[in-house]
Design brief:
The structure holds two protein chains of two kinds.
Chain A (H helix, E strand, L loop, with lengths): L3 E3 L4 E4 L4 E7 L6 E7 L6 E7 L2 E5 L2 E6 L4 E6 L8 E8 L7 E3 L3 E6 L1
Parallel strand pairs in A: 2-11
Antiparallel strand pairs in A: 1-3, 3-8, 4-5, 4-9, 6-7, 7-8, 9-10, 9-11
Chain B lengths: L3 E4 L2 E4 L5 E7 L5 E7 L5 E9 L2 E4 L6 E3 L9 E3 L8 E8 L9 E2 L3 E5 L1
The chains are: A mainly beta, B mainly beta.
């Protein structure tokens, strides 16, 4: 079983839709959870990070962690064509801050 | 601001050749990382460094070597290139714990081994 599982997509939505991106993980010890966005032929960039369970909001983006279900989500409201990218979830492997494990990424396409 | 710079952007190698992927950062970050990204597989950590003179293995270190003689530079060495090393390689840096400090990534080196 992979440590982090993510549906590869692609996920295609119309502009303005609410997008839900999800990851499941296997190790209940994970405490730090991150979402990275990666545009084509570019390196990933950090979108959001959360610690433990709960929600965190930043503009149109909301990250949600459900540790009891080992499930993390990223919601994008009012999606824009510029949100078209691959979204990677990442978890801090040993909570020591020096090693991340990444999901395979979900490719999102927002159509005008 | 340059951030993290990787060279070259593209390279084709023959089986058995060697090469060094260069990475430099100008943010005075202590932590640096090398990842490889295969299609649909996410990023796999190859090696990381928490400061000059200190390196450690990640998840997939076999076939690679690193050194960290300065804060700015973290080169990745392939000694005997194999087709399984065909991938996109990303270098990243962060100021502190990666969980609450963003990792800054370069734009990658696309490497093909034929």
């Amino acid at each position: 079983q992979k440590e982090v599982e993510q549906d590869p997509g692609p996920l295609s939505v119309p502009e303005g839709a609410i997008v839900s991106l999800n990851c499941t993980y296997s190790n209940s010890a994970f405490q730090y959870f991150m979402w990275y966005r990666q545009y084509s032929r570019k390196g990933p960039e950090l979108l959001m990070y959360t610690y433990s369970s709960g929600n965190k909001e930043d503009g149109r983006f909301t990250a949600q962690v459900d540790k009891s279900s080992k499930y993390i989500s990223l919601f994008i409201r009012d999606s824009q064509p510029s949100d078209s990218a691959t979204y990677l979830c990442a978890l801090d492997v040993n909570n020591a801050g020096n090693m991340l494990t990444f999901g395979g990424g979900t490719r999102l396409m927002v159509k005008p | 601001n340059a951030g993290v710079t990787q060279t070259p952007k593209f390279r084709i190698l023959k089986i058995g050749q060697s090469m060094t992927l260069q990475c430099t950062q100008d943010m005075n970050h202590n932590y640096m990382y090398w990842y490889r990204q295969d299609p649909g597989m996410g990023l796999k950590l190859i090696y990381y460094s928490v400061g000059a003179g200190i390196t450690d293995k990640g998840e997939v270190p076999n076939g690679y070597n690193v050194s960290r003689s300065t804060t700015e530079d973290f080169p990745l060495r392939l000694e005997l290139a194999a087709p399984s090393q065909t991938s996109v390689y990303f270098c990243a840096s962060s100021g502190d714990r990666v969980s609450n400090q963003p990792q800054h990534f370069g734009d990658g080196t696309r490497l093909s081994i034929l």
